[in-house]
Amino acid sequence: MTHLISRRSLVAGSAGAAALLALPRLGWAGQPVRGGRLVVAADSEPSNLNPAIVASNGVFFVASKVVEPLAEQSYDGKDGLSPRLATAWEGAADGRSITFRLREGVTWHDGKPFTSADVAFSALEVWKPLQNLGRVVFKNLEAVETPDARTAVLRFSAPTPFQLIRNALPVVTSVLPRHVYAGSDITKNPANQALIGTGPFKLAEHRPGEYYLLKRNEAYWDRTAPSLDEIVFQVLPDRASAASALEAEQIELAAFSAVPLADLDRISRVPGLKVYTNGYEGLTYQLVVEINHRRKELADVRVRRALAHAIDRDFVVKTIFLGYAKAATGPVPQYDKTFYTPDVARYPFDPARAEALLDEAGYKRGADGIRFRLKLLPAPFFNETKQFGDYLRQAYGKVGIDAQIVSNDTPAHLKAVYTDHAFDIAVATPVYRQDPAISTTILFQSGLPAGVPFSNQYGYADPEVDGLIRDAASTIDDAKRAELYKALQRKAAQDLPLINVAEFSFITVARDTVGNVSNNPRWAVSNWADAWVKQ
Amino acid sequence: MAIPRVLAVVLGRIAGAVPVLAIVLLGSFLLLEAAPGDAVDAYLAGAGGADAQRIAELRAAWGLDRGPVQRLAAYAGALAEGDLGWSSAFERPVRDVVLERLPVTLTLMGLATTIAFGLGSLLGVLAGARPGSLRDRALSLASLALYAVPGFWLGLVLIVVFAVDLRWLPVGGIETIASGKTGLARLADIGLHLALPVATLSLVYLALYLRLMRDRMAALWHEPFVLALRARGIPRRRVVWRHVARNALLPVVTMLGLQAASMLGGSVVVESVFAVPGFGRLAAEAVAKRDMPLLLGVILCGAVAVIAANLLVDLAYARLDPRVGSAQR
């Protein structure tokens, strides 16, 4: 029952959400049934469906049912993991190697056996050189030894924290079949669309613009799984249509907040539909104000603190996220018990204090009541980022800062912020991935070349922060490493290179005939081997 | 002698279309080139980022490290050999992606245009037969109301009524997924799926044809030749259908040709609402993903379709109005 507690704590502090929560009741009637088809709404179709190359939620949503990682996240497993293709993993004391025991009796969808050679190939030829996140995590990977078909030993050229690799397993270790990819141009291999994996489902058909059809893998290593015969991801680009399709019983599940928050209240009262707010703890997003430190005014920490004091986090959570979010204190979300520290400087909503700080910094209100003007670029990724942009404009207007909103579509926004640095402040939504080293430290690290999206393109540079990041990258001791990241959070709260406003995730709406929904922290992007549907 | 003349007209139009297409392509290329961000930026947003070296590798692999002039030259060179290029958004040849969507869009557009034109001009005749009558005023009011309604909203209302409440029709898609249906059963299935999007699109445009037909007819009643016909005691019904309506049809047919263009592009919203994998959505996706070859491919096909539609309209025009043909002799 531990997951029930964590699921409640995710939304604790918001009465609105608590009232709306339709958690699966304990002792919920119904036993898993074998067979049947589950129809799910998909809002996008990634061009490259290969999770070993593109580790992203959009790819995992479909591909995680077909291609499996070495381990998956779990609410109650050791270190928060449950085994998949690996059954055990152990790091050497010197941080130079990690040994994986691989599962027996696993075959690829084309019938060939899965062996340690596949893991070695994937690690050296795909994760390390090609994968967006693997290039960071496996930077020091030197060799993979395969003493036998069931053992893979990863060797590192420099001490590498076992903790990091462990935390990264679900995201970066999707294993590809060596016999399909070896000797080809991996990025152009047709199997990137027609995936071949070891998962509980085979990719049977993809009709672009219409659907992905997944069919049961009869030879899955877990003989009791999968429960479902088929999963259909129906492409529904319009969000209002996803809600209608649920109501009309033409789809049974819409994940990743495909039903807009504004429709949730209505949808949750439709008989036969359930709203799940859990199952996304492992995919927590941060709502962040990015700050261009090249701007003279914003280079002053007093101004940045004023910007933080001017934001009413409570209002943001209640009004923009309708309660489906939490106020943030720093770059690590609160559910992460290993790395999170609440012991940081806070910036409560206090417009008077904000104005005092701005006066102190020498930016008095002019004759028109304006201190200075800022170019504000809200990312177009979510409805909420755009709404928060509008809110920021008002909130900053009240303390005498005139923020002009510049709206861009996605490629234009990325170029403006991360390549051209043509912004003063921007609204962003970085994802936290179980370990700060995977995609969080690059928000603070200095000296990254221009053009790298979702990284520190803010011009913030601090030797102490860089030192903490460097040390944590090679610290093998788990406790010491966590302490370094806590120090990073304290320093980030002091310096405010960027402002963490809220942490949020997604919701799932499903018919009550669907079983085993949201039963792990990455459910939407896990393999759904135990999901079932009442006929 | 009739066939060679038609053929000559067709060939002449095709020859005339080539520079038009070239200008259309160049314009689209420049427009998309002016938009900030490239295909790699769009890709990275979906992938959740990558490091600088991988980004540079991607740009090189997709030819984005070259200047716009070189890229346009390369595209034109490939196009001359009949190659539409490689779509980075779909990681497949543009030709395959476009050909996949073309039948869906042509079916949707063809049905919607036929219904809008047929029903719209028919109702226009009914309204214009007795201008100022109760029937005329009711039809005119209804068409105005329809014309004022945005397409997506109409679509959503139809979904709520016919798919969610009554459950007569599917919410979206173009056929039941992997149903295994073949032949007539599959055709019926597709028909059911297309009913709502076709209805939405045709209702939006129907109003236009109705108004045009009705107004033209109302004006024609004051023409001397109509007055003469009526003075000769020719039955009103015969005057309406044989003389007034036939005359009023000319501007409506002209409109049909213009409509072919806006229908291809104007369906983005309806295609999204009903999850129909058509051309409008493809074009929108190509822009969002900064997929230059795909967008140019879509525009090229669209332009060809519009030119073809206009050619057909002109031929129909010549049949309806003998004066058009005589001018070319």
TrEMBL record, chain A:
InterPro entries: Peptide/Ni-bd, SBP_5, SBP_5_dom, TAT_signal. It is found in: Periplasm. PROSITE patterns: TAT (PS51318). Keywords: Signal. It comes from the Bacteria. Its main location: periplasm. Residues 81-429 form the Solute-binding protein family domain. Coiled coil: none annotated. Belongs to the bacterial solute-binding protein 5 family. This is Peptide/nickel transport system substrate-binding protein. It comes from Labrys wisconsinensis. The lineage of its organism: Bacteria, Pseudomonadati, Pseudomonadota, Alphaproteobacteria, Hyphomicrobiales.
Automatic annotation (TrEMBL), chain B:
Gene3D superfamilies: MetI-like (1.10.3720.10). This is Peptide/nickel transport system permease protein. The keyword Repeat does not apply. Its main location: membrane. Signal peptide: none annotated. It comes from the Bacteria. The keyword DNA-binding does not apply. InterPro entries: MetI-like (IPR000515), MetI-like_sf (IPR035906). It comes from Labrys wisconsinensis. CDD domains: TM_PBP2. It is found in: Cell membrane. Residues 102-317 form the ABC transmembrane type-1 domain. It is a multi-pass membrane protein. Belongs to the binding-protein-dependent transport system permease family.
